[in-house]
Design goal:
The protein has about 300 residues and is mainly alpha-helical. It contains 13 helices and 2 strands; from the N terminus they run H-H-H-H-H-H-H-H-H-H-E-E-H-H-H. Bound molecules: 3-hydroxybutanoyl-coenzyme A (3HC). 3-hydroxybutanoyl-coenzyme A binds next to helix 2, helix 6 and helix 9. It comes from Saccharomonospora marina XMU15.
Length: about 300
């Protein structure tokens, strides 16, 4: 039956239809979907740390309430995505172990420090803006549960991006000191935001297969270019400059040309030697250890309930 099942899988992909948990799928497809969904979930959970750092120090109640809502959204995105990974037979506890032990990755972008409150605005504007560029196409990903999770997550990401842009617009209309804070944050987050889209296509081991299986709908470089084209006009509205002297409109291409990304920095951060990697993983490990009693209590309660209903 394998050839028929494989043919059915291939036809479903070719017809732009969804692969569902009950369908037969190649082991390689399962593995790459678990890898991608789990690392996306890890990114959401770790991503709560840089922003959470400013919740107690937000400059107003309104900013605190917005930031609180955003960080709670990220937690929800993480849990949503771990559930999507479970539909492929992954075990959530195992995925957490892999994150904590460094066997699975999370997005490089969260290994940079948030030094001032302007970073909260720049993360919303640039990091969530990049996430939207990367995730909107994933709403059409061939694996059903992942695509459906993306639809809801993208709606919340657009709130994240809007609140970040509005925060920066407010600061840019403030004092010279506030304007300097915004420019300083943009200078620090611009290049790491471009690295979020992954290595250049020519050095991406997964892109070709992920495109063939319609998991990815665009390549890393295509989405990176789309993000640059979308963001440059927004920077002009904000009145900030982007830290790339080679950034300029290329009428022939119909896109912005931009400078070379420092791929050695990217490799350093992805391999665990970024500014905050050790701190981020240690924090996650501590949260997991401190939370053990909650997991044990919930399991004991569930066992008691099961006993009572079996009696
Ligand atoms: N940070 C860390 N690792 C990265 C990376 C990054 N920015 N970009 C690529 N990598 C890793 C890949 O995971 C892969 O390693 P692995 O084999 O151990 O998984 C290796 O580098 C090669 O990269 P590829 O481009 O070949 O890998 P992919 O085809 O998986 O593409 C990706 C990478 C574009 C990130 C893709 O996995 C993807 O689109 N993932 C779903 C979206 C996602 O995870 N976004 C995270 C952004 S953070 C976020 O969304 C939170 C929001 O609130 C801001």
């Amino acid at each position: 039956p394998q050839p028929d099942l494989r043919r059915h899988f291939q036809r479903t992909i070719e017809r732009d239809q969804r692969i569902e948990p009950r369908d037969w799928l190649p082991e390689e497809y399962r593995k790459t979907m678990i890898r991608m969904i789990a690392q996306h979930a890890h990114s959401e959970i770790i991503g709560m740390q840089p922003e959470g750092n400013w919740i107690t120090r937000a400059p107003s109640l309104r900013r605190k309430a917005i930031l609180l809502a955003k960080v709670q959204d990220e937690a929800g995105h993480g849990l949503y995505l771990y559930s999507a990974a479970e539909t492929l037979g992954a075990d959530r506890a195992e995925l957490t172990e892999k994150l904590i032990s460094g066997k699975q990755k999370y997005s490089s972008i969260f290994n940079y420090p948030t030094l001032t409150f302007a970073d909260v605005g720049v993360i919303g504007w640039l990091v969530d803006g990049a996430a939207i560029c990367n995730q909107v196409p994933l709403c059409r990903s061939s694996y059903g549960p992942y695509a459906r999770a993306m639809i809801r997550i993208c709606k919340e990401e657009s709130f994240h991006q809007r609140q970040g842009f509005e925060l920066l617009l407010t600061m840019m209309r403030g004092t010279p000191r506030q304007r300097d804070m915004v420019q300083d944050a943009v200078d620090r987050w611009w290049w790491p935001s471009l690295m979020m889209f992954g290595p250049p296509d020519a050095e991406s081991p997964h892109t070709e297969q992920s495109m063939a299986w319609k998991i990815k709908r665009h390549t890393n470089d295509e989405l990176r270019q789309r993000f640059v084209d979308m963001t440059v006009p927004q920077a002009e509205v904000l009145g900030v400059s982007l830290p790339d002297p080679e950034l300029k409109w290329n009428a022939e291409r119909g896109h912005y040309d931009f400078g070379e990304i420092d791929w050695s920095e990217f490799k350093q951060v992805v391999s665990g030697n970024g500014p905050c990697n050790a701190q981020r993983v240690a924090h996650r490990r501590a949260a997991h250890t401190d939370g053990a009693w909650v997991r044990e209590a919930a399991a004991a309660h569930a066992a008691k309930r099961a006993e009572a209903s079996a009696a």
